[in-house]
Write a structure and sequence with these properties.
Layout lengths: L1 H21 L9 E6 L5 E4 L4 E6 L4 E5 L6 E6 L7 E7 L3 E9 L7 E3 L8 E2 L9 H13 L7 E5 L2 E11 L2 E10 L5 E12 L10 E4 L3 E3 L4 E2 L3 E10 L7 E9 L6 E5 L1 H4 L3 E2 L8
Parallel strand pairs: 1-7, 2-8, 11-20
Antiparallel strand pairs: 2-5, 3-6, 4-5, 6-7, 7-9, 10-11, 11-12, 12-17, 13-14, 13-16, 13-18, 15-17, 18-19
């Protein structure tokens, strides 16, 4: 009986050792930043990426984005001497920022700049309806320098060329790589470069429709093309295909000028988009 007890205890010890060694690692804690705000002054927080959502633990904290700025959050106390609360901010790069907020008549600081960090803020995954801005920037920078050319469509007038040289796709985003070329001695100031889904040309007196497609991200200079130079620009657009009887129009218009271009892209071109990953091997 004594021998059995010793064996049982040894087996129990081995089991507990195995279990503790293979137990799931504890979840990583997201640090909370201490922040003071007041009633009569505004506190500004500058985030490294655009703000996607803000959740306040209490209505005693007033929060808004700065006018015209997507990455600056302005805070103020709705009343004096409120109880401690918290706030959570999600940014476009997937960053999760947590703040513990207290009232102070004279806060230690009124302007806080949060630089791009690694492992100090939480990371979240966006659903299919949201786009990670940091990923867009990485892909666009890569494609800007990629040597691979997958497509060649162009419109040319008055010495100005609008050339499509590549279509790339990642998840729900298609990247359009365009070259804006100026073969004249006159600089070209860009008034606008926009994307529309338009009806094919029809007979006169027939109503036509167009829908603008807003870029999610733009990489490159689209303000001016100096004489005898070219610019490469990456536009990230939401993934879509073009119905029969329609086309994608890339409209380039000159500021205070008439050298306007209209590049037509049809569905049989869009479906040739290559995975973004294919451009990694080309560099």
């Amino acid at each position: 009986m004594r021998t059995v007890s010793v064996v049982w205890i040894m087996n129990l010890g081995l089991f507990l050792t195995y279990f503790s060694g293979n137990a799931q690692q504890p979840a990583q804690s997201i640090p909370s930043r201490e922040l003071q705000i007041t009633y009569a002054k505004t506190t500004n927080i500058v985030f490294p990426y655009a703000i996607k959502s803000v959740d306040r633990g209490s209505k005693d904290v007033l929060a808004q984005k700065a006018g015209g700025m997507e990455n600056i959050l302005q805070l103020k106390a709705a009343k004096e001497d409120f109880e401690e609360t918290n706030m959570t901010v999600v940014t476009a790069d997937g960053g999760l920022y947590v703040f513990t907020i207290n009232y102070a008549r004279n806060p230690d600081l009124l302007n806080l700049l949060l630089v791009k960090e690694t492992q100090t803020s939480g990371t979240i995954q966006f659903d299919n309806q949201m786009v990670n801005e940091a990923q867009l920037g990485l892909d666009a920078s890569l494609l800007l320098d990629a040597h691979i050319k997958t497509i060649r469509k162009r419109d040319r007038k008055f010495g100005i060329t609008l050339l499509l040289t590549g279509l790339f796709i990642r998840d729900n985003v298609i990247y359009y790589r365009l070259i804006l070329e100026n073969d004249t001695n006159l600089s070209y100031d860009v008034d606008q470069l926009r994307f529309f889904i338009r009806d094919q040309e029809k007979a006169k007196r027939t109503a036509t429709q167009e829908v603008e497609v807003k870029p999610l991200y733009v990489e490159g200079n689209i303000s001016r093309i100096s004489g005898n130079t070219q610019q490469i620009v990456i536009f990230a657009l939401p993934k879509f295909t073009i119905p029969d009887g329609k086309y994608l129009a890339v409209l380039l218009m000159e500021k205070n000028g008439g050298r306007n271009l209209d590049l037509k892209i049809r569905n049989n071109t869009v479906v040739q988009a290559m995975p973004v990953a294919s451009s990694y091997s080309s560099n």
